[in-house]
User: Which sequence fits this backbone?
């Protein structure tokens, strides 16, 4: 059993999945809203690893992680979800209304633009071919159906070459590099960030991801 599945097994979340999809040759993927109290320990174990440095929470305590996701949970414009494969929590993804986010200062937002962030948890063993593609297939399908998105917008750190390459493989069209402005509010602080915009329209979501 991987470290991720060990942590997940202690979760007492009572939240119900909002989406379930059987991905061929991959397994059953479920998407469930984050329960800050139940999921914060697992999320903390992921975001504080060096591999997740671009997530920007490397120095956060578990308590701070819980507070951050409690804040997200209160919002109507930002959402966080745990993704499970065959019952094991394997990834965290977040969505947001681009018109209500700092990214809106960097490009011309269109109605139905939904921003996305994806963090895949540690595998706990040998990397599996097609693992990331299977997750992307499910979460893109969710956002363009039940999620109500008309276009997906990603803004990974411009220095995160792996994330940019993944978006290209998934069918996103790369846009310009931008500087996301600093956000300094009592309830949240986000430093300025060099980002690479990327866009995915619904027709592209039907392409085979690999």
Assistant:
């Amino acid at each position: 059993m991987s470290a991720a599945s060990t942590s997940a097994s202690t979760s007492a979340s009572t939240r119900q999945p909002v989406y379930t999809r059987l991905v061929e040759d991959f397994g059953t993927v479920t998407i469930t809203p984050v329960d800050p109290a139940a999921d914060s320990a697992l999320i903390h174990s992921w975001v504080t690893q060096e591999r997740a440095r671009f997530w920007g929470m490397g120095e956060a305590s578990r308590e701070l992680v819980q507070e951050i996701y409690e804040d997200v949970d209160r919002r109507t414009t930002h959402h966080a979800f745990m993704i499970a494969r065959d019952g094991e929590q394997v990834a965290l993804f977040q969505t947001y209304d681009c018109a209500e986010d700092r990214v809106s200062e960097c490009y011309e937002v269109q109605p139905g633009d939904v921003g996305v962030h994806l963090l895949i948890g540690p595998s706990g063993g040998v990397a599996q071919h097609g693992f990331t593609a299977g997750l992307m297939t499910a979460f893109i399908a969710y956002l363009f159906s039940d999620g109500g998105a008309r276009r997906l917008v990603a803004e990974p750190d411009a220095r995160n070459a792996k994330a940019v390459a993944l978006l290209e493989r998934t069918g996103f069209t790369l846009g310009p590099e931008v500087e996301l402005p600093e956000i300094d509010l009592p309830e949240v602080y986000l430093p300025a960030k060099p980002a690479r915009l990327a866009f995915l329209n619904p027709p592209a979501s039907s392409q085979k991801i690999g």
The chain has six helices and ten strands. The beta strands are 19-23, 27-33, 78-85, 88-97, 113-120, 151-154, 173-180, 183-184, 189-190, 193-200. The chain has one domain: 3-205.
